[in-house]
């Protein structure tokens, strides 16, 4: 296996670990590094088995990214609901005091 392919697998693992950690900044940096390596990947020199492994690893990254996006959307929705409830409570309290 070429050192370049080994580097891609290491970048995939680092990216997956970063995504699973929940650290958005670390995930972004790891994804950028991985993306840079993938874009420079010499396809002509790639063995079919290595390509298959790269694709399987890439699919795992896409699934982890999708799960992270879903979790973030859920957190944002919860935060919006809490903010709406807080505003409604403050509004009702302000209305009660003025009466």
Order of helices and strands: HHH
| Percent of residues in helices | over 70%
pLDDT under 50 segments (min length 5)? none
Radius of gyration: 22 Å
Distance between the termini: 78 Å
What is the number of E strands? 0
Number of helices, counting only DSSP H or I runs of 4 residues or more: 3
Structural class determined from secondary elements: mainly alpha
Q: What spatial form do the alpha-carbon principal axes imply?
A: rod-shaped
The major β-sheet equals: none
Percent in strands: under 5%
The mean pLDDT is 88
Overview of this protein structure:
The chain is mainly α and about 100 residues long. The protein has 3 helices and no strands. The chain has helices spanning about 5-20, 25-40, 50-99.
């Amino acid at each position: 296996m070429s050192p370049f392919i080994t580097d891609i697998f290491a970048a995939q693992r680092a990216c997956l670990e970063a995504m699973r950690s929940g650290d958005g900044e670390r995930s972004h940096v790891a994804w950028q590094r991985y993306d840079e390596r993938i874009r420079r990947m010499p396809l002509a020199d790639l063995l079919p088995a290595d390509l298959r492994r790269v694709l399987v690893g890439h699919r795992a990254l896409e699934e982890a990214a999708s799960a992270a996006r879903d979790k973030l959307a859920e957190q944002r929705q919860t935060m919006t609901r809490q903010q709406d409830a807080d505003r409604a409570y403050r509004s009702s309290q302000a209305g009660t005091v003025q009466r």
